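Page 42, continued from yesterday. The earlier attempt failed because a stray header line got pasted into the input along with the sequence. Redoing it now with the clean sequence only.
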Amino acid sequence: MGSVTDFRPVFFVIGILLMTIALAMVAPAIADGVAGNPDWLVFLAAAMFTLFVGACLTLVNRTGDSRLTVRQAFILTTFSWIFISAFAALPFAFSDLGLSYTDAYFEAMSGLTTTGSTVIVGLDDAPPGILLWRALLQWLGGIGIIVTAVAILPMLRIGGMQLFRTESSDQSEKVLPRAAQLAGAIGLIYFGLTVSNAFAYWLAGMSIFDAVCHAMTTIATGGYSTSDSSIGHFDSAAIEGISTVFMVLGSLPFVLYLQAVRGHGRALWRDTQVRWFLGIIVAALLALSGWLWIANDAAVDDAVRQAAFNAVSVITGTGYSSSDFSAWGSFALPLFTVLMFVGGCTGATTGGIKVFRFQVLYATARAQILQLIQPHGVVTMTFNRRPIPETVPGAVMGFFFLFILSFGVLAMALSLMGLDYLTSVSGAATAIANVGPGLGPVIGPSGTFQPLPDAAKWLLSFGMLLGRLELFTVLVLVIPSFWRD
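This time it went through. Structure tokens are written below.
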């Protein structure tokens, strides 16, 4: 069990996850069956095949021991996303959409990582099974991300995540039982928010089907829609307002919801990460609405509506759009690019660098300045009114450097494939920050990733995985010494 080459616990968990995905395929099969679409057979066949593989992996690798070493946790975290995306792509590949397996894998990876980039054109006429499957992938990916961020990444000490370690996550052998307990508790809150969101959408005028699909992708901050025009298709201030509120709710730490349910009602507001996040949203809203009002001659109420919805959509990594914000002018483009990188709170479904890392960087910079003024003074860096452990600032700066480096390498690789500057840069940013649409006419809010070459789609799929699993989790696997006992 001490050997990293013992993959049994890893394949056992992947088998369980594949069986979960197989069961999820039944819902779109039923939706297509009710609608009389022949794709229900595709979903059923994909479900049976996935269930068979998952059951085989589970039975063959059952050891009766749920302990997981740290190295096995690294392998499991990365490989589970790769394997599940491979099987989740099957319904896309064999449906009537005519997608290649490259396109199908890109769509599945984008869904499970809650990125929201799409290669499908003609969503308004797509069969209900495919639309429901896209929403389900993001919804399941969202809960998977929360549990990973709360139970696994703090144990692996990824990019400063050790700030969020608890006593029960200090022992690696406890990771699987702990993850199961957290998934159950957080899953109930996640489900409750989804139902509330769907009901609100329905009251605002969406059909039941649209309300359910959009609720799943809103809470997951994923951004898949049932229309090519995204939320803009409904042209409703009420729907955009509901979406804005629930995108923010999906971007707050779910552990704090858990504390609030248990009687600590002030936990959310007392958290400095939440305050910073809401402060950034308000600042972006004021800047964008002011720009639209002054530079674009928009009415004040329309400017506030457009700015609030699209700014929240980008910073939370949801990627919904109510209009083509890449055409808003010179100020909007760099602001949206910055918001892409910021992201939401850790322990939520959002992507990006995460607000807590900016807090740690700010505390580090402030301490450096104070020490320049008072060289012999003792400066204590704090996060949430607690001292920051010595290892955290270095881990956060390492993550920040690696994030920018990975973004630069992705952007240059895309440009070598013949893509223009705006498409290369925004494509790399939206993949590694798990946002969804890029900027410009090709992959912007009014376009799709369909025109990109296959090599670019595989590279962007890797970028989504890299960003979703906080970089180090994936990159540590390419270091030869990791595999040595």
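Notes: The chain is about 65% helix and 0% strand.
Reminder to self: strip header lines before submitting.
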